[in-house]
UniProtKB/TrEMBL annotation:
Region span, Disordered: 1-29
Record lineage: Eukaryota, Metazoa, Chordata, Craniata, Vertebrata
Annotated protein name in UniProt: Retroviral nucleocapsid Gag protein p24 C-terminal domain-containing protein
Retroviral nucleocapsid Gag protein p24 C-terminal domain sequence ranges: 157-228
Pfam families in alphabetical order: Gag_p24, Gag_p24_C
Native source organism of the sequence: Hirundo rustica rustica
Gene3D superfamilies attached to this UniProt entry: 1.10.1200.30, Human Immunodeficiency Virus Type 1 Capsid Protein (1.10.375.10)
Domain of life: Eukaryota
Gene Ontology process terms (BP): viral process
């Protein structure tokens, strides 16, 4: 995903050249569908989930977000409090990079916090930012914003409810896994702890039918083994029930022709055939 032709290598002039006509860089807005996908993932899985992180990475990963786009996108990601925290994190990150400038050889030489944040009076519009910002400035502010999103998300994330999620009697095991994993992904648990916590919660918080199935799971099985084992048993359970229903359903007695359930008719005899069956 690219915002600036020259930075995204789509055939425009290189940063700093400016100029008119065909050499002028033009503004291309963020794809709204990409932002909508982030918002939906936040609603469904939580702001700190792996899916949200991946989607944000796909939008910001090109290092080519203009300050205008950064603000517009983050207004949809964060509510009021989150936006306040994000802006401060973003600004602090930009200031740290500017503090590293030691002379005219540095790629951020001559830049300012106002330029990086999109508040310079000469760069208020996205087109002005596209024309006036240098490639390294765009990269710097994009990376600073991405780090700011991560920091702000950790601050404002709602407490995880993974410890209270239970599998309902009508819920499939894979649906239960999806709900529980989404909650754990959005929690503040260390990455290395999420797998073991998920496995333990699946065992402890599943319904009674699943617990019966898990009793036959071989010792030492991993999480993938557990999911495959339960899914397989859930698949065959309706088939087994149907077979049992068929066997015990009413059938005609060969001797008295009365309907009965297998084992209930005293007159029932196994049929014999006078003519051998070839």
């Amino acid at each position: 995903m690219r915002r600036l032709g020259s930075i995204g290598h789509t055939g425009f002039s290189s940063p700093g050249g400016g100029g008119a006509g065909g050499n002028q860089r033009t503004y291309s807005p963020v794809n709204p569908k990409d932002v909508q996908a982030i918002v939906k993932a936040i609603t469904d899985r939580g702001i700190n989930s792996a899916m949200v992180s991946t989607l944000i990475g796909s939008v910001f990963g090109g290092d080519d977000m203009l300050p205008f786009d950064i603000k517009q996108t983050c207004r949809l990601i964060f509510d009021g409090a989150g936006m306040i925290v994000f802006k401060q994190e973003w600004e602090d990150n930009c200031a740290k990079q500017l503090a590293l400038v030691t002379g005219p050889d540095h790629p951020l030489y001559g830049s300012s916090l106002q330029r990086l944040m999109g508040t310079d009076p000469t760069m208020i519009t996205p087109q002005a930012q596209a024309e006036g910002l240098r490639a390294h400035e765009v990269m710097t502010t994009t990376r600073a914003a991405r780090e700011g999103i991560h920091s702000a998300s950790m601050v404002i994330a709602k407490p995880s409810s993974w410890s209270t999620i239970k599998q309902s009697e009508s819920e499939s095991f894979t649906q239960f896994v999806d709900r529980l994993q989404a909650s754990i992904d959005s929690s503040a648990l260390p990455s290395e702890a999420k797998g073991p916590v998920l496995a333990e919660c699946l065992r402890q918080q599943c319904n009674s039918a699943t617990k019966d199935i898990l009793r036959s799971l071989p010792p030492g099985s991993n999480l993938a083994d557990m999911i495959r084992h339960v899914a397989k048993e859930e698949h065959f359970a309706p088939i087994q029930a149907a077979v049992c229903t068929t066997i015990t359903s009413e059938m005609a007695c060969f001797k008295c022709s009365q309907a009965f359930k297998l084992g209930e008719c005293a007159n029932y005899q196994t049929p014999t055939f006078s003519t051998p069956i070839n």
